[in-house]
Amino acid sequence: MLWNRLRYVLSPQFDIYEQVSKVVRGRVCDIGFGTGFGTHLFLVNAKEVYGYDISESAVNFAQKVFPFSKICFRYGDIEKGIEDTPFNYVIMIDIIEHLKDQKHALHNAKKLMALNGIFICSTPNRLSRYRKSDNHVREFAPKEFETLLKTVFVNVSLKDYKLAPMTSDYENPMIAFCRNVDE
User: Fold this and answer.
1) What is the pLDDT of residues 26-65, one digit of tens each?
2) DSSP label at 74?
3) Phi, psi values for residue 32, rounded to 5°
4) Are 67 and 86 in contact (CB under 8 A)?
5) 4: confidence class by pLDDT, cuts 50, 70, 90
């Protein structure tokens, strides 16, 4: 188990966390944090960070490794819903492709958002050459991802790994910035 958790530090998700940590502020919610290694990066600019995961061992691991006062790791299943006060940012990094009821999970994520909150969601691009995973329920092309997100959110924009607008249908990963109200 320790090897799997440490291997995560070397994964592409860590790079996404690093980029996203530059833009988050206020109260931040990280859904499906895995190890907490990425989640703790949000502490640089966030007022407080809450991480939710469906794995009790992930929660226990993160609590031991990151015992900081401004971060809290809890058990939570986004498909069933998570009860908490509104967040300025709700983050799901490479989680949506693992969920069976993706649209319901997005509605539950929206419920966690403050009125002008931002939802940030990344997923591998199925059109790219990345290694596919048998653990993925559904993978998305850019238009499919955008269409799913627009069923829940009003304002959706797809970005590349540097958080710049996507310029190709083959860029990997895709990172969506979504709002629940128009700007």
Assistant:
1) 999 999 998 898 899 999 999 999 999 999 999 999 999 9
2) E
3) 75, 50
4) no
5) low
The two structure tokens encoding residue 83: 């009860």
Cβ(50)–Cβ(29) below 8 Å: yes
Cβ atoms of residues 95 and 34 within 8 Å? no
Looking up tokens 């799913």 gives 148
Q: Is the pTM of this model over 0.70?
A: yes
Q: Which residues pair with 89 in a beta bridge?
A: 28, 118
CA distance 148 to 141: 11
Query: Which is nearest to 11 in space by CA: 29, 38, 32?
Result: 38
Tell me, what's the pLDDT at 180?
78
The answer, yes or no, to whether the previous bond of 173 is cis (omega within 30 of 0) is yes
C-alpha distances in Å from residue 56, one per residue of 53, 83, 96, 146: 7, 17, 19, 32
Residues 13, 93: contact at Cβ < 8 Å? yes
- The span from the CA of 89 to the CA of 128, in Å, is 28
**CB distance 152 to 121 below 8 Å:** no
Which structural domains are found in the chain, ordered by start?
A: 27-179 (3.40.50.150)
Which of 11-15, 98-102, 174-178 is least confident? 11-15
| Exposure of 169 in the CB half-sphere (CA atoms within 13 A) | 6
